[in-house]
Amino acid sequence: MYDIEARHIIEALRSGIPSRAVGQYFSEARPKIMKEISDRLDVVCEQGKSSGMIISGKYGEGKTHLLNTVFNLAHSNNMVVSYLSLSKETPMDKLYLVYQKLIQNTYLPKRQQPGFTYELEKISAGSPVANEMLLYAAKQLETDKLYYLFRSYLNTEDSDEKFLLQADLEGDFIANVPLKKIYKRIFNQPVKYNTNFTKTKHCNDYFSFMSHLFIQMGYHGWVILMDETELMGRLSKKARLNAYRNMAGFLMPKEQLESTFSIFALSASYAEDVIEAKHEYENLAAIYPDEPEPAKTVLDLLARAPQLLPLTKDEIHEILYKIQDFHGKAYGWTPNLSIESLAEATQSGGYLLRTKIRAAIEFLDQLYQYGKAGKTTINELGEETFTEDVPSIEEWG
């Protein structure tokens, strides 16, 4: 009888697609950087200080797996997590698109599916949380749009209005005119903005509002995980510089962003392929000669981003041991071979962690199905023999 959860883990590893479940079970690797991240999460939870960091690594070396491990660690700390891979449709220079996608991929602790509106719907007008959020929206943000919007959301009895206002909080921004009409209908008072809201200029208000809301809901903070950050390199010159400015709001957050920790993961070659090859410092000096900051500081951080080091022999063996254990549970058998033999079998898979994992699973698949793989065989007594002449993944296929 096979274990369904173990089968899920093996199939996720076989596909090469990182998952939260894999991050939960394979979390011991890279203890140094995980200790640093854990300590920084503790500061966020205990002191409410927001911060951010950048990690870099080669393709297939475990950046996304690390983010999934942080995902599970944050949830164990009762923190809200948002996870997003940057893309052509969600570029870092357009913060309002980033906000929308992040909110769509926001997970509350102990929840497998994204979403938070069911908790939002529990907040009633006049409650302590409602009053605190209204005061915050009126006094602490650059614009007061969210004050009028949230007050309308709490007090409307019209389901269509409720849906429209809730969609705004999720990033489908309502125009100023219909919001003013809704507010006037409910309260018989006109809306008088201190500053007219535009999504291209004032989207940071929404990030600040959400960070405060999550704390008021009883969570310990908000973790924002950004993958595929190197795709910024495909933007135009000015768009890239604007993207760096937007990154600064997460890496060097102002006080308005409350109890939030952000991680950006990008390719190790970004400094060479983009910052150097496209002359980013010269571009910055030419386009923003009088206002190089905060883009310059972000460029500095990107240029010296800590790179994920190759796993040690012991760390690789620990991962392979777990793969072997999960494979046995997944298919109801006992892979009776040494970790050294399994590690040797992965050598032909190349140096990348991802290919080593897939090579190990392919090797175990063949042992399970045929009792042998390459020149490694399992006899009827479960004993094994091994030679170094192990075929590549392509030859196995």
Task: Lay out the secondary structure.
Elements: H1 4-15, H2 20-25, H3 31-47, E1 51-57, H4 63-76, E2 80-85, H5 95-104, E3 106-107, H6 117-120, H7 128-139, H8 145-155, H9 159-169, H10 176-187, H11 199-202, H12 204-216, E4 222-227, H13 237-251, E5 260-267, H14 270-276, H15 280-287, H16 295-303, H17 313-331, H18 339-345, H19 353-370, E6 372-373, E7 376-378, E8 384-385, H20 393-396
Parallel strand pairs: 1-5, 2-4, 4-5
Antiparallel strand pairs: 2-3, 6-7, 7-8
Q: Give the averaged pLDDT, no decimals.
A: 88
Question: Helix and strand succession?
Answer: HHHEHEHEHHHHHHHEHEHHHHHHEEEH
Count of DSSP strands: 8
* Radius of gyration, in angstroms, nearest whole number: 25 Å
Helix content: 40-55%
* Quaternary organization: single chain
Q: Uncertain segments of ≥5 residues (pLDDT<50)?
A: 375-397
Outline type? globular
**What distance lies between the first and last C-alpha atoms, to the nearest angstrom?**
27 Å
Concise overview:
The protein is an alpha/beta fold. The protein is built from 20 helices and 8 strands.
Spell out the key features of this protein.
alpha/beta; 397 residues; disordered C terminus; 20 helices; 54% helix
